[in-house]
Amino acid sequence: MTKTGKKLTPMMERYLEVKSQNPGTLLLFRMGDFYELFHEDAEIAARILGITLTSRDKSSSNPVPMAGFPHHSLDSYLYKLIHAGYRASICDQVEDPKKAKGMVKREVTRVVTPGTLTDDALLDPHENNFLASIYFGKSDIGLAWLELSTGRFLTSNTTAEHLVDELARIHPAECIFAEGNTALQNAIGHLDTMLTERPSWSFAQDECESRLLEHFGTKTLEGFNLEQGTPSITAAGALLEYVQETQKSSIPHINHIEPYERGDRLLIDEATRRSLELTRTIREGKREGSLISVLDETVTSMGARLLTDWIANPLTSLSEILRRHDSVEELSQNPVLCSEVRDQLAKTYDLQRLTARIATGRASARDLSFLAQTLALLPMLKAKLSGRKSELLQQLEAGIDLCAEVRSDIETMIIEDPPLTLNEGGVIRPGFSEELDELRLLSKGGKEWIAGYRNEEAERIGIPNLKVGYNKVFGYYLEVSAAHAAKVPEHYIRKQTLKNQERYITPELKEYEEKVLKAEERAIELEQTMFNDLRERVAKEAPRTQQTAEILAQIDVLFGLAHLAMHAGYTRPEMTEEPVLDIRESRHPVLDRLQPSGEFVPNDVLLGDPYGRVQIITGPNMAGKSTYIRQAALLTLMAQIGSFIPASEARIGIADRIFARVGASDELSKGQSTFMVEMTEAARILNSASERSLVILDEIGRGTSTYDGISLAWSMTEFLHDQIKARTLFATHYHELTELTQTLKQASNWNVAVHEQDGEIVFLHKIVEGSANKSYGIHVARLAGIPDQVIQRANQILSTLEKDHIDDSGQTTIPPRPQKKSSHQQLSLFGNTQHPVLDEIRDLNVDEMTPLAALEELYRIREQLN
Ligand code: ADP
Ligand code: MG
């Protein structure tokens, strides 16, 4: 009953029932050829999808808002809903409407959420799509993450301190956690991931463990190297439950779970990951312009996803790194092999996601045909790889399972280019099944009989333009034009009168029609059964095709790195356990690619014995300091994933961690980074870096007043130098810090060479030893468009500062201003345009700041505007 007391139709009753069983999702309710949404869902869908909002029951006083789209457009509309941050339940008709007695039965067949996507149409082929689960144990936090479209399932235990870094590394599309954990929501809310609360019973420890045991069909989890009772098991169990609930199908391709070993991986925290722009740029959040966009020369989507994984998890084991370098070296010396193999790889389909679709029973005939086509490429690939010298390539070659029976099973049964659906049949090869061939003959024979019958009738009754047609309502019919209507024999039964035609059926026609249709129907049913059997047989081999898929991905990444090394002129770095960096004529991998060839000025990076552990790099803004220090970090990271690097030669000491921090005023990522954030991040470095770490600091201390900032930067550098002994690159425009080298033995000054002529300066982008003799800040401010009056005044203050430094009271003796205007003098440098940054400028109270600080502030804002 509705509020108005009107009785609901059975359909709407079913709708409301299903809706209440699937809270938190948009319900797409199949009605005929459409998916419909009602009430609030309809309003949301209309807004996001741009479809028309109408209403059901328009005449009543209480119409129900409604919106819908044709069922065949489901994928494209789902894509938009999911990417707009919604979950959707798909409610389908689960019985044939033709056979249904009464209302057609409807059930939710799957729930689609960002972390549980499996359809190619909804997934980015080049990106992993992880679902993560977080469980707070007594002391540790359990994490589990799954790529449903490939079946990769991992777990680890972590601490509150590392949780955000871990999640940033995994980069899940969706995270599940027990309801009511607002602390967690606050902690990870800024990550680009959908947060899904689950009932707390879903995280019950014992049930979680038995759920995993039942799924994997094992008695213990020790075989997977999982320790009993750890929080990660609970997280994994809850994750599995969520997947089972949303998929509503079996998930046999998830056939193992691995503990993630952090020990032999280079640790990169969230801030560093972001600041080094490994997979996304800071400003625009795009892949283009990030490290991966340069490194990715893969030709398959499996390879592209694995490369993302390698970049997120660089190695720290010398022997592991050498194995990859050996392979890349061998391949890069063999360009012919390289291009032949890459040509073959490019023809493969996404074996990982195909396998998962087959295992979950969602694969089409076309998918099986793609699988066979991919398997058909393996013998050639294996042959090309045989006889390689490097150990890793030998291992990969040996691991390729040709799955020959699977391939021949599919090839003998499925036609070459099968249709997408089984609805019309025509998927199974002629000659494969006698029974099927007979049925097909019968249906074909029937059709031939009908054609012959038309010819006979046309002649017999003298209607040359007599036509045969077919429609769903009354099947085969004969069509007579109005002009000949008088000639129609009496036993013809009229079914329909159109403007210029009449349509008739005859008993003979009906008799054959039934033969045709029956045969056709049985043929299709038979094809479906045979196809399902085949799919089940192939699904049983999923572990084998999955293993081969993983190997193809590795081969693709290694060949891609070799290709890159050859074409971008990279060299093999020598790796060592000693904490050194000795990279000659190195280039920034991304800028080198973006700038016209030859324009990037190569630089040496010399750190560790005998050059000293700490470099202080000074120089004016825009000189190239940030570029230089990032370059050092990126090249170290590239070497540790197994890549060659843009340099003439290099000796790289393996880092256990890389830290990159950017001073508050330089970091624009989230719009408003504060000094507090800057200091929190700096604190983490000082608390967790080791002698084997590489630390790059960019303008740290800039988010506060000059003297505060200098003092903090000063003491942090001392600490890194004396206590931690990490290799450190510190870029700063605080010229004062160059004096540190007088007391710190392992610290040295470097600066960016500048050519000065007639008051104009040219940046040479060359890093040279020694400290910069001037900061040129005011000069840069002039280039940036700061009014002359401000520049002149700044120059005046600067010369006083340089002469006097600070007086006894701690105050600078700034000369008085030439004239004083209103106390709330506003800077109208940028006119009256609407812009958040401009508001910030208008709010600046220049009188309360030192002129130098005001100038700095202005320059900072000006930078933000550019
Ligand atoms: P800083 O940190 O000193 O202010 P950046 O490192 O941000 O300067 O560099 C400013 C710009 O100078 C870069 O965007 C780049 O275009 C250019 N640049 C930096 N280093 C080089 C180099 N080695 N060769 C060529 N151009 C460079
Ligand atoms: Mg900089």
UniProtKB/TrEMBL annotation:
Region (Disordered) residue spans: 804-825
Record carries keyword ATP-binding: yes
SUPFAM superfamilies: DNA repair protein MutS, domain I, DNA repair protein MutS, domain II, DNA repair protein MutS, domain III, P-loop containing nucleoside triphosphate hydrolases
PROSITE patterns listed in its UniProt record: DNA_MISMATCH_REPAIR_2
GO BP of this protein: mismatch repair
Domain annotation DNA mismatch repair proteins mutS family: ranges: 693-709
Molecular function GO labels: ATP binding; ATP-dependent DNA damage sensor activity; damaged DNA binding; mismatched DNA binding
Keywords: ATP-binding, Coiled coil, DNA damage, DNA repair, DNA-binding, Nucleotide-binding
CDD domains: ABC_MutS1
Pfam families with a match to the protein in the record: MutS_I, MutS_II, MutS_III, MutS_IV, MutS_V
GO cellular component, one term: cytosol
Coiled-coil stretches noted in the UniProt entry, renumbered to this chain: 509-537
Binding site for ATP: G619, P620, N621, M622, A623, G624, K625, S626
Function per UniProt: This protein is involved in the repair of mismatches in DNA. It is possible that it carries out the mismatch recognition step. This protein has a weak ATPase activity.
HAMAP family: MutS
Protein family per UniProt: Belongs to the DNA mismatch repair MutS family.
Name this protein carries in UniProt: DNA mismatch repair protein MutS
